[in-house]
Amino acid sequence: MGFSSNFTRELQEHKQVINNLTQQLLTSKSEMNELKQSKCKQYEDLTSQLNTAKQKLMDFHHTLLLEKEEMSKEKTTYEYNVKQLQIKLEDLSFENHVLTQEIENLNKRLENEKQNFREQVQTSSEEALQSSSIRNQENAAEQGSNELQQRHESLPKTNRDAKLSEELSESASFNELDQIQQLNNELLEAAVALKNSHLLFRDEISTYNKQHDFNQLKVLYKSVKTQMV
């Protein structure tokens, strides 16, 4: 009986230990389930965040590709514009060179015209002085002719015939003076026409300079050069 009682008591103790272990096991299992659910929830959340980040990354990559394509188009457009500006710059440089040559030629022509005009004026002045001297001589000759005419009428007929011969000779000299006077008048008219031509040419130069504003060309040249840089 003693043995049976001890065995029963030990069996009860072992059974209690087993129950305690079972309870602990159930508790641990419950905790494990809760932990598993928590980890699953965290995994789901992380998976969702990862998918969201992945989608954002894909969207960003797509946007980056679109921007890259747009930048490529802009680069092509920019290179085309630069090339066109280079062509325009070369055209402007050539046109500037041509205009510079034209201005130099016009300046040379103007200087030649001025020189010719000065020479013509000087010649006309000299001829005008000669003409004045000739007119004085004509006036003196005309006055002398009148005096000779008066004397001729007061002479006898024989002497009058001799004087008539002299008068004819003087008349030929007067005709030559008339021709010289006419030539001088033509020279004066030519000088006036040359002066008018000079004024007209100066107006043409002024109009040409107004139509070809080189300051504007320089501004445009600098603008194009700045854009190219």
Description:
The protein is mostly helical. The chain has one domain. It contains three helices and no strands. The chain has helices at residues 2-154, 157-211, 214-228. Helix 1 (2-154) packs antiparallel against helix 2 (157-211). Mean pLDDT is 71; it is low at 155-164. Residues 116-168 are annotated as: Disordered. Residues 118-148 have a biased composition (Polar residues). Residues 149-166 have a biased composition (Basic and acidic residues).
Total count of domains: 1
Gyration radius (Cα, Å) is: 62 Å
Write down the overall mean pLDDT.
Answer: 71
| Percent of residues in β-strands | under 5%
Distance between the termini: 115 Å
Structural class by secondary-structure content = mainly alpha
Low-confidence stretches: 155-164
Please tell me what the overall shape is: rod-shaped
Number of helices: 3
User: Helix and strand string, N-terminal first?
Assistant: HHH
Largest sheet: none
- What level of helicity do the residues show? over 70%
Number of strands: 0
Region (Disordered): 116-168
Biased composition (Polar residues): 118-148
Biased composition (Basic and acidic residues): 149-166
